[in-house]
From TrEMBL:
Name by which UniProt lists this protein: Alpha/beta hydrolase family protein
UniProt superkingdom: Bacteria
Family annotation (SUPFAM superfamilies): alpha/beta-Hydrolases
The keyword Translocase is assigned to this record: no
Upper taxonomic lineage: Bacteria, Pseudomonadati, Bacteroidota, Chitinophagia, Chitinophagales
Species in which this protein is naturally found: Chitinophaga eiseniae
Keywords for this protein: Signal
Record's signal peptide: 1-22
Length: 300
């Protein structure tokens, strides 16, 4: 009887997940269509709406890594949409790799790199991003565009600006640093970091200064997922994450594919054997890890 009950429950869970995936609405939006002056860099923005029955009334904003196109995040985004989240993957100015600042003798190199890409402030000699094409403006324009087409997206706007407290920002590699930077400047609903940040000053033997700054997002809402053999150096990433989330615990816990995560640790690591260890944190075999991260990050 117990086996039969467990089988029924598993089937019900599978059916619910399958239904949720089937009812996800996917849109591709040309960035240039959201406002005059905004450029398309790699691909359309990608937006997903969850099934009504699973709607969490929260938005996950995904920021890809260096050279990454929004449409390449489809598998990742689909998993979160199936969990009930609205999801956006952003096309943005990401052709310059973050590690251009790693060996800089300018201790503010990373700070200015992030500032210019996030807000369009002309402070970096490594990138050239105007305010129109900054991450914040591109997100704002996209949300206004989506809200004009479907009232469901209006939830994530407040007085013409993103309702940051209803938005969980996630990022991979370079995008992880942007997500953490955004968490410093806005009170986000949560911050999820995958395989980053990479903002370690090798000449100074410490994380970049912006990571130590007091931020508007509570440190308990940050969760990171790293690979111990990441070619961008796990030890540097771990120190960056520890700087970002202090004084919260920076202790790590090892996770495995397909295994439910329990506990309260904010830094999750894997040693899974994959050719692309840097991209392994975005593998759909880690959906239970992602669920743990976003569920804990959004707890009130």
């Amino acid at each position: 009887m117990r086996i039969l009950k467990a089988t029924v429950l598993l089937f019900a869970a599978w059916l619910l997940a399958t239904t949720a995936y089937a009812q996800v609405k996917v849109q591709l939006i040309d960035p240039a269509a959201t406002q005059a002056g905004i450029q398309t860099v790699h691909s359309p923005h990608m937006a997903m709406q969850p099934a009504a029955a699973t709607n969490q009334h929260r938005l996950l904003l995904m920021i890809p890594g260096t050279g990454g196109a929004a449409v390449q995040m489809r598998s990742f985004d689909s998993c979160f949409a199936a969990m009930g989240y609205y999801v956006i993957s952003l096309d943005y100015m990401n052709n310059v790799i973050t590690t251009v600042c790693s060996k800089s003798e300018d201790s503010t190199c990373f700070d200015h790199f992030r500032q210019e890409i996030m807000f369009g402030t002309p402070v970096s000699d490594k990138v050239a991003v105007d305010s129109m094409n900054s991450i914040v403006h591109r997100v704002t324009a996209l949300l206004k565009y989506l809200a004009g087409k479907d009232a469901g997206w209006k939830t994530f706007l407040s007085r013409g600006m993103p309702a940051w407290d209803k938005i969980v920002v996630a990022g991979h590699s370079q995008g992880a640093g942007h997500a953490a930077f955004m968490g410093k400047h806005f009170r986000m609903g949560g911050v999820l970091l995958f395989s980053g940040p990479q903002d370690y000053l090798q000449q100074f033997h410490r994380p970049a200064g912006w990571q130590w700054e007091h931020g508007l997002t509570p440190v308990g809402r940050y969760y990171a997922f790293l690979h111990v053999r990441d070619p961008y150096v796990f030890d540097y990433q771990a120190q960056d994450v520890a700087a970002v989330i202090r004084p919260a615990t920076a202790d790590t816990t090892m996770v495995s594919p397909g295994v439910t995560v329990v506990g309260k640790r904010q830094v999750l690591v894997t040693d899974i054997d994959r050719k692309d260890t840097h991209g392994a944190t975005l593998s759909t075999e880690f959906v239970p890890v992602w669920r743990y991260m976003i569920s804990n990050a959004t707890k009130k």
